[in-house]
Design a protein that fits this description.
The chain is mainly α and 217 residues long. Helix content is 71%, strand content 0%. It is elongated and about 60 Å long.
Amino acid sequence: MSSLAPTDRPLRKDAERNRLRILDAAGELFAQRGLGVTLDDIARHAGVGVGTVYRRFADKELLIDALFEQRLASMCAIASAALEQEDPWDGFVYFFEKGSELQARDRGLKELLTCSAHGGGCVTEARKRLRVLVTEVFDRAKAAGVVRADAEPLDAPLIQFMVGAVMDRSRDVEPELWRRYLQLVLDGLRPCAATPLPVPALGVEKLDAVLRRPAPR
């Protein structure tokens, strides 16, 4: 039995090394090009055969789960830090600014936050944790009277979706342009001189239905 062990150990090291190469390659491609990249794309970028990718991750959703659980945890950390800001409005702005900065650097994360069709169980649970924290950020700001009363926590993904559209369109021309439109949105969320909204916020089921829809071509 002992004569087999030296042969087994390098295989395990190779498998782990390949797994890390796949995750690094997927992280780079997802950040640059979004979640539409294929496992074939990832295999080429990692310098491994596509069969190696499938042995580690049977489908792309498993790979997304493995890669983005921690990145969603970073969004949760931003929301938690927003709640620690002494001023509720500063915390509200902090969440959207820092969260948007993270998404501007990672197109895959942006798409994951604005499309609930991607990801498995780990991503789903991370999204739930984030939704709870975002609700607290909104509720705290509304209770302090610094955010308009008809703004709802479930507006947040669609705000991110709108700002994200600017990121995508202007990335190669003026990559910081999204900051201008985020500021316009934030000013529109202040209670002073707010025009009553003509349509109510979506509920959870309708929001998820919207976020699952593919972008029109």
